[in-house]
Amino acid sequence: MDLDRIFLGKFLKEMFLDTIKVKFWDGTEEKYGDGEAKFEIILNSHISKKDILTDPFLTLGEAYMDKTIDLKGNIMELLESIYKNKESFLNKADVFSKIYKVLPNTLKKSKEDIQYHYDLGNDFYSLWLDKTMAYSCAYFKDKNDSLYQAQINKVQYILKKLNLKDGQRLLDIGCGWGELIISAAKQYGVNALGITLSKEQFEKVKYRIKENNLEGKVDIKLADYRELVKNKETFDRIVSVGMIEHVGRKNLPTYMESVNSMLRDGGVSLLHCITAQTESEVNEWIKRYIFPGGYIPSIRELVSLMADNDLHLVDAESLRLHYYKTLKCWAKNFEDKMDEVRKMKDEKFIRMWDLYLNACAASFHYGVVDIHQFLFTKGLKNNLPMTRKYLYED
């Protein structure tokens, strides 16, 4: 009697909301659920019961990367089927997070972690991102917006929320490939500084600044936000898009203290980030293969830290379904460019990345994460618009 096979059959039977067919390594097949199977799972070899019980995220993620598991059907919909089943392991991440070892995000480690993910090559990212090279949640004002238009919308939306004025100094913490700081300088006349720990992003932004004749108006530094604090730099506006997820839970107070320290009295800051409903560590598969050092803060953690630093929350907005749609676009672009990706990356990396993009899309659609934009001020500020009307005017 194959105990691993018996366990896996029971485990898979209880995992999905939809009907599935499973083909085991011994050639036998089983169908779980009523009616026609929506997905087929092929198990090419044994998967240890002990490994699954210890950490199903890591075990199944690695099994897919190594081709121990193959899938037939839409991978995003398959993952959504697991999320829709509230008893599945995907909805119980906090149970497994207790086993994860958390290392402090020192300056050195933060730099290494960022470069691990973002220095995969500008050529790689340009294959499936839009031409703005924005690698964060877009904003779909209209259901028919292209990914490019939605990323332009996102930048414009953030700049409006910041209520920028000519001559102000703007800091973008984790500026990516520079679309926001370049747009801010061109449209609002601000003096913008972007910082990143990615060498690839740094070089690309330098090129874009020169290309747009913005030397002296826009600057880019290969630096950590904590280094700016040491230099006692200050700003009228501070924005961060998709960066705080990299600082680690232990450094969240440091991040908010740093923003408070750098923001001038009456200044405005916008934080755009993935959020969790409750506090738990990111699963080990994501931390090991995609975002080392990552942590998704809860809404209450962030709001509490704002209050601790006398930063006043003005507005909070969920963009969860916008990120689902963004990730769906990225996953499709990635899969459409698979032939070109194969010229750059091996099969294990491709399966890993395809799983990551589709899993994230499923997670924002039916899962356990959200994304918010928080707008807050240093001290009370009475001259911001009293309604959101200005945000929706062209």
Automatic annotation (TrEMBL):
GO molecular-function term, one example from the UniProt record: cyclopropane-fatty-acyl-phospholipid synthase activity
Keyword S-adenosyl-L-methionine: yes
GO term, biological process aspect, one: methylation
Domain DUF7884: 7-93
Domain of life: Bacteria
Gene3D superfamilies: Vaccinia Virus protein VP39 (3.40.50.150)
Keywords on record: Lipid metabolism, Methyltransferase, S-adenosyl-L-methionine, Transferase
E.C. number: 2.1.1.79
Broad class of enzyme this protein falls into: transferase
Family: Belongs to the CFA/CMAS family.
UniProt protein name: Cyclopropane-fatty-acyl-phospholipid synthase
Natural source organism: Clostridium algifaecis
